Amino acid sequence: MLSVTPITAFSDNYIWLLRQDTSQAVCVVDPGDATPVIDWLEREGLDLGCILITHHHHDHTGGLRELIKRYAPRVIGPDNPEIEGIDERVGDGDEVRVMGRLFEVFALPGHTLDHIGFFAAGIPPLLFGGDVLFSGGCGRLFEGTPEQMYGSLTRLASLPEETLVFAAHEYTQANLAFARAADPDNADVETAEQECRQARELDRPTLPSTLGRERRINPFLRCDSTGVRQAAAAHGDTHSSQATFTTLRAWKDAF
Fold first, then answer.
1. Which portions of the chain are predicted below pLDDT 50?
2. What does the record list as coiled-coil region(s) (predicted)?
């Protein structure tokens, strides 16, 4: 059986650790810092067999050099020469088997141009989407266009509603504060805020979320809803779902 554990890094990053019960080797996703990963492995007496990388930002790749030197894991990531240490470069439609699960690679440009995600169908479906889809929000547009990010989110929104969404940051509380402004009549957002507040007061992660939940509470996945369009109309163009997304993203940046 596959388990997924969050390792906290920096102020709000999650390095997700995948482990099969019968394996002494584990896999980590986006290790921006090697130290907490090494500490976890030494405490549990395990080895690092694989690393998945979603994009080139340092808070997702900064631990690569030390982890490679120490454990010599298989490193899978986007075809971007800026990222040193990847030995298996993958792109849209590729498949990789990790910890007994078959993951499909999705190209998810928007946050960065090289951004990819890893999706495993099955029970339950798993999505490691880096900085594209957060609980209650989405990533900033550092390199890509609003059109690219909207396309990436639309693609993810089509996945099964039971898909577990393992985002790379604990941004949920701030995202839901914006969601309340962007979708003011949505009772699901209010409920999610209460659940999020309770979890954070106990220092518990608000992740993973599920795709079904995100469709109910995440304004960036609800650009075709009347309530979101009405709220966004005061901040820009909402003549289409894509235009509404563009307006929402700019509004969130200034929120």
1. none
2. none
pLDDT of residue 96: 98
Residues of the binding site: 55, 57, 59-60, 111, 131, 169
Task: Determine contact, residues 111/55, Cβ cutoff 8 Å.
Answer: yes
Give the annotated binding-site residues for Zn(2+): 55, 57, 59-60, 111, 131, 169
Report the phi/psi class of residue 97: left, alpha or beta, with left for phi > 0 and alpha for psi in -120 to 50. beta
* pTM exceeding 0.85: yes
Per domain, the residue ranges of the chain are 2-254
Query: Quick one: pLDDT at residue 226?
Result: 97
Q: For residue 112, what pLDDT is reported?
A: 98
Look up the CATH number of domain 2-254. Answer: 3.60.15.10
By CB neighbour count within 10 A (0-12 exposed, 13-18 middle, 19+ buried), where does 195 fall? middle
pLDDT value of residue 22: 83
